[in-house]
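User: I'm curious whether this sequence folds into something compact or stays loose and floppy. Could you predict its structure so I can see for myself?
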Amino acid sequence: MEFQCAPNTSFCEDVGKNEWPELCGTEGNSAVATIATENGSVNPMIVKEGMVVTPDIRCDRVRVWVNDNGFVTRVPVVG
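Assistant: Here's the prediction. I'll summarize afterward.
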């Protein structure tokens, strides 16, 4: 069975690679490392599903949403 991630949209352009659909279902810490390697101008961070976050859009941030098992549940995007 293939892991299904919630879709996500980046509103940031001209920041290099800005989305990582290939990381759906992968382990969160590994996803953070991949994002940091592929785009050094962003700060990837793990966020657990259900956590409250600010609604602002920042073109230097990537939220990596994970479930209780630590697997990516949404497509990581810049914003």
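Summary: The first helix runs from residue 28 to 38. DSSP finds one helix and two strands in the chain.
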